[in-house]
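This part of the workshop introduces the protein records we will be handling. A record pairs a protein's sequence with a compact description of its fold. As an example, a complete record with its sequence and its structure tokens follows.

_____
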Amino acid sequence: MSDPAKLLVWTNMPNHYQRGLFDAIRGLGVDLRVAYYEAVPADRKAMGWSAEGELADGERFVPKDLGSLDLFPGWRSRIHFVPGYGAKFLLQLAHRLSREDARWVHWSERSHRGLRWGLTFPIKRAYAHLVNARALGAFGIGRKAVEDFERWGMRPEKLAILPYSPAAIPMDGPLDEACMRFRGDDRAFLFLGGLDHRKGIDLLLRAFARLPSTRYKLLLVGNDRSGGEFARLSSSLGIADRVLFRGPMPPRDLPSAIRAAHVLVLPSRFDGWGVTLNEAASGGLALIGSDECGASDHLIRRGDNGFVVRAGSVDSLAQALGAYVEDPDLAARHGAVSRVIFEDYTPRRAAERMMHVLSSWTALRLASRDERSARA
């Protein structure tokens, strides 16, 4: 019962961001099982996300009901990772594990502060009480997530950080032809992800338009969800000739776009984490991220490898972009530091820290039980 080396992770669907961590956990000799309780949508498959036939050993798709527990023999001896209360099934799972006295932990990003956060606060409070009373603890995907969990009512001693930790991008191979053809001999700012309001693409275009017409281009790689609004905005701002709407690329090809750029920009109005900062850091890019991106707290050292800008502020973003225009060598200096910082966020380091915390939580649980038994 005290062995923390048997895990069962419940998560919605396979994604390439978690693959490195799962592989690293297995590399430590841990018996890992993964239950995916939602199908991979067609648009994700088209982008290269894993399908059922490509799962690793010990991973499988399962129905979204408690009967799925029995698909994993010996599930009571495992530590279960539960990603929150966002689905009825997950709440049922947390309560079932608690009734069975099975070991489980919460693991998720922070929730977005807003009307919905307030309306669902009673659920958060009840879930936090369950974590305090019955779970080993809760892993937050970044410091902002841990702070959010404390607002729910989770006790600080039950909390630890377990960020997203994708593997480093490969540094060899060709550069993306479309990006390089557009960039030419110029330098490039790069955005990766869905092009929408939450990601702050309008802010980025307006900030980029404030820069002098210099030898910097802007590469936007991702699905444009604006219905052409952003392209029209770039035209009205007079920067259409300096902005490339590259479109979506499958995950396996993204490194070729990262290697074609100099600075990664993630100006999100809100991002629970922002894994593109990890990928760009591993590729040696300078980083700009908003203060509403969870990853900015961890992967950006202000002034050393990039800048943290105020979410929603065109002025703050334009100032950060301008620093690289004014000093042509700054991106290279910052990028070298990004590689060093990334080494503290590799899948191996994350897996080692996670197992250390799980061992500590398990020991505390056993000590608490021994203490109760002695009093009895």
Notes: The longest strand covers residues 6-11.
